[in-house]
Structure formats: structure tokens, C-alpha cells
Here is the input.
Amino acid sequence: MQAQVGDIRMHWREVGAGDVVLFVHGFPFDSGMWAEQLDRIPRRFRLIAPDLRGFGSSTRGEAPVSMDRFADDLVGLLDHLGIDRTVVCGLSMGGYVAFALWRRHPDRIRALVLCATRAGADTEEARRARFELAGRVREGGSRVAADEQVPRLLSERTFRDRPEVADRVREMIESTDRATIVAALEAMAARPDSTPLLAGISVPTLVVAGGDDRVVKAEEMRRMADAIPEARFQTIPEAGHLPPLECPAEFNLALVHFLEAIQGH
Ligand code: MLT
Here is the structure.
């Protein structure tokens, strides 16, 4: 589906009816990363997976990209759909956007699912690496990002037993416009530290870590969960950085359990 949301034409996938879950994709992916959730989670939930500006089939618009901008776009979509409050499920960069949503629009959030993400800002070293990668992507295109990212994103077990997942992830990255990749790298480098927010998160929260995640270690995510008053923490042992794609059955079970537990909340 598509609609004009502020200065962009926003595309999203949607199935089901009932309590709403808004899925926010990571970098540099698109709403397609949630295919196994939209296909397999019972239709008694309304599942909405947008493409953030510039990604997938959404246009990039004129406004500079930032985590705040992404968050405001999502609220624009909720307004367009007449949705007051939603569960927000963000993976990695989608988690950074979820924190921006919490900072700017907490009244729109019923519950949070934070997957393979971190609250902290980039270190100086991480920032330098992002600018360096942005330079190489500007020159060489999205393929450069795919070459660098794919080997870090998936668990050893996924590479061994489900190589088709690696192919899908590579395809998603290579189909992302290089200017969007560069803009998102700069936006992530500029994001603020969300650690001070954690103690004030007053909605039910599920934190999901991949046991073999090399980008954000499960231990770091456990510490993040410990800092959120209402959080439960779950590790999916055989997943890397992308549990919803690598271990969809386990991820969906954890998510549906959580959604059932918070019904009426
Ligand atoms: C993601 O999966 O969204 C990225 O790993 C986020 C990041 O580079 O910090």
C-alpha cells in the first residue's frame, strides 16, 4: 500500500485486523525483512511494515534523514491510518527509531519490542567507520555495503544451513539506493544516546537478542533489558543479528507470546 505522508510517498505492507504491531526495519533493509512475520503470525493482529524514507518503495523526499525524521514519518503513517497507539517492533536501526518514537511520541506507543539493537550512541570509532563506509558506498554503490555487511549479519548456523537467507539479505541491500545508504549511515552516526531513556520506559517491553549476534552482543542487550523496568529478555541462541529472518519460528513464538501477555494493556 502507498500514501502521501508529509513530503514522501510512503509504502507499507499490511495484513490482519486487531491489535496493531508496527514493524520498523533495520539498515540497509526494507519492509521485506518482515515477510516471515507477516506471512506466519495469526491474522488476529494487524501487522504493518513500512519502508522508511528512501528504502524499499518509499521515496526519500527533501527533508534531511535522521532517526527523528523516520519516527515522525511513522507517526504520519499512523495518523493516516487512524491508529492511536501501537506496539512498535524495531530491529537494530529500527530500534534506534523506536527510541526516537519513545522520546518524541510516547503517547503513541503501547508496548516495545527491541530486537538486536542498542541504546547507546556510536563510539568515535564506530562513527569513523560509518563515514569511511559512506565514502566507499558513494564511489562503489550499494554492493560495497552488501560485501561489508552480509558476513557480519548472520549466525554461523544460518550461513551453513540456510544460505538462501544470506542471498535474500544481499539482494535487499543491493537493491537499496546508494544515496539512501549514505544518508542513513550519517543519520545513525548523529543519533543521540538513548541510555538515559531506559529507566523511564513505562510500557511493556520485550528485548530479543540473537545468541550469535556479532553486531550487538546478547550480553549488551541483557544489560539494556535490565535497565528497563517492565522488560523481559529473550535470547534466540542460533540467530545472529537478524532473528526474524534467521529463526522466524522462534522469533514469532516469542512475539506472539508477548502480544498475548499484554492484551488489554
Ligand atoms: C542494522 O542492522 O540496522 C545496523 O546494524 C544498525 C547499525 O549499523 O548500527
